[in-house]
Write a structure and sequence with these properties.
It is a single chain. Among the domains are: about 160 residues, no CATH class; about 90 residues, no CATH class. The protein has 14 helices and 32 strands. Strand 4 and strand 5 form a beta hairpin. The longest helix is centred in the middle third of the chain and has 17 residues. The structure holds zinc ion (ZN). Zinc ion binds next to loops. The site of zinc ion has 6 residues, from loops.
Length: about 550
């Protein structure tokens, strides 16, 4: 006699138990559109009233093992209406089969704006109509409620009326429209149908649990240990709370943790700022990161079965890992606090390493609407004359770089090499990078055409041998064109020229690290060191924003 073997199958809408033979039982449980619901973002509350978000911990997994010391439960849905308890520490091994890939639509998008901004949306519709293109609105983002407060991250994306099945075709179309009309045109991807497949969890106890598309797990007590075998080899993580395994691309699986927002933030704050920073700086960073996290809900990973990834792209999430007590305190003491603007929406709380003496207006860093709470401000200490006060001209930037650094960032005593810097770039070092922006011949001239309020170059002209020139907009593109400059707040001078008149190098003398918008992390450190409270720090960098207790 073999051991009694149970096959439990989670699939359609009703619960039914069928005896296949005396030794094998099939239990079928399920939910309509269980997979699709994973792609619709929701901030939900866990059993203790803590807001949680689905965070991907592994992608591309071929096999996934789940274990917990005191055993685990396999659940039919996130709500856990039907569950199978598997006592003992052995856990289960999950594999996927009968896979079909998901489908995506690739829309060519010509504008985006908050969903309530009818004025600018209408203007864009008219503009593209006059160009001879019909555009249709597509919605992204979400509205969600937390303790009675409704938050709205919805945006409208205006797209050409027919999507492409292939990314490549959409990109080609977008590039041709961008060139023709000198407008920003991009590809907006939507999920047409999610990937599907069968998941099988085998337990040593002779029990097999099956489900279509998705399977939820939780530890009976304590944390869940997840081990994944995939492209990156074998990886393990301890997860607090509940998680699910779902089908991903090409027959692989995705492991997702329904993580508490406050736990996620501990990881973010630890990754973002020196743990040695004074309390007020850590708290200011915690509020900025919380606001940013909640403002992104529904805008990122719209075609993934989770809303936030654990990579640097979104959040540096390490699961149930121990972090410095000071970091945990900074998150706890600001629990539920966010920054909102006059319109009641969450502020896009950008932050960066070092401003270089002055922060930047958001619309100068990215082609986006002017944000009233993201105006550039001086980061120089009180009483220090601000050379940029009457405009960030070439001469003003020179005066800033020539004067001793008396910024709040300098007062921190940290990040010294990012405060002021000088680098040289030879033609050979930057050739590949310049090629990407269309410079195919040796560079003979670099001219800053436009600077933002912080002194950052936001538009430059590159002249190549033979005389033709290329204009480049955007601080990040400018930094990348010269092989990862710390910031675009620089003065550039050519070195001695060769026989053809090509400079042997370009010297960049600059200040700061990053885009310069919003909170200056090193400046926040310096302000806290000099006694400012976190509310003061936040209102210095996010002028006019309101600190709101969301939960
Ligand atoms: Zn991400």
């Amino acid at each position: 006699m073999g051991t009694r073997h149970f096959v439990i199958h989670f699939a359609i809408c009703a619960l039914c138990v069928t005896a296949l033979d005396s030794n094998v039982w099939a239990v079928t449980v399920g939910h309509q559109d269980r997979a699709r619901s994973l792609y619709q973002v929701v901030v939900s509350l866990d059993g203790q009233g803590n807001p949680v978000l689905p965070v991907s911990v592994y992608k591309g997994a071929k096999r996934v093992q789940l274990r917990a010391k005191g055993g685990l439960r396999v659940l039919s849905t996130g709500g856990g209406t039907v569950s199978v308890s598997l006592p003992g520490p052995e856990g289960v091994m999950v594999t996927a089969s009968e896979h079909t890939d998901g489908q995506r639509d690739h829309w060519v998008a010509v504008a985006r704006a908050p969903a309530n901004d009818m004025m600018s949306l209408r203007r864009e519709v008219q503009r593209w109509k006059s160009f001879g293109h019909k555009v249709v609105p597509r919605g992204v983002g979400a509205t969600y409620g937390l303790k009675g407060r409704v938050l709205d991250t919805r945006r409208t994306v205006l797209c050409l009326d027919q999507p492409f099945a292939e990314m490549r075709s959409a990109r080609i179309k977008a590039a041709s429209l961008a060139a023709k009309y000198s407008r920003q045109v991009f590809v907006h991807v939507e999920l047409a149908s999610p990937p599907a497949g069968k998941l099988t969890a085998d337990a040593r106890a002779g029990v097999t649990v099956q489900a279509d598309d998705v399977m939820w797990f939780e530890a009976i007590e304590g944390t869940l240990e997840v081990t994944s075998w995939g492209r990156k080899g074998k990886q393990s993580m301890l997860l607090p709370g509940r998680g699910y395994v779902t089908v991903g691309a090409k027959g692989t699986m995705v492991v997702v943790n329904e993580a508490r927002i406050e736990t996620l933030l501990e990881g973010v704050v630890a990754a973002e700022i020196f743990a040695s920073a004074p309390r007020a700086a850590l708290r200011a960073q915690a509020v900025a990161a919380r606001t940013d996290l909640l403002a992104k809900v529904g805008l990122r990973h719209r075609t993934d079965p989770f809303s936030i990834c654990s990579d640097v792209h979104c959040q540096a999430y390490k699961g149930a890992k121990r972090l410095p007590a000071k970091i945990i305190e900074a998150v706890k003491s600001t629990r539920g606090q966010v920054l909102t603007g006059a319109d009641g929406r969450l502020v896009d709380t950008f932050y960066h390493a070092v401003s270089g003496g002055h922060t930047e207006n958001n619309e100068n860093a990215w082609r986006m609407r002017t944000h009233p709470n993201l105006r550039g401000v001086s980061d120089l200490r009180p009483g220090v004359p601000n050379p940029l006060a009457n405009g960030a001209t070439q001469a003003a930037v020179k005066a800033l770089l020539d004067s001793p650094d008396r910024s709040y960032a300098a007062a921190s005593g940290r990040n010294k090499r990012a405060l002021r810097w000088t680098v040289k770039r030879t033609p050979k070092e930057i050739r590949k990078h310049l090629q990407k922006v269309g410079v195919t011949r040796p560079l003979t001239g670099v001219q800053v055409l436009k600077r933002g309020v912080s002194g950052r170059a936001i538009e430059i002209e590159l002249t190549q041998l033979g005389g033709s020139s290329i204009r480049l907009w955007g601080e990040l593109r400018i930094r990348r064109a010269f092989r990862a400059l710390k910031s675009s707040l620089f003065l550039v001078t050519p070195g001695p020229k060769d026989r053809k008149g090509v400079p042997r190098w370009w010297q960049f003398r600059g200040a700061g690290y990053g885009h310069g918008v919003g909170l200056d992390q090193t400046g926040a450190y310096g302000r806290a060191k000099l006694g400012q409270k976190y509310r003061e720090i936040l209102s210095a960098y996010y002028r006019g924003a309101r600190l709101e207790q969301l939960y």
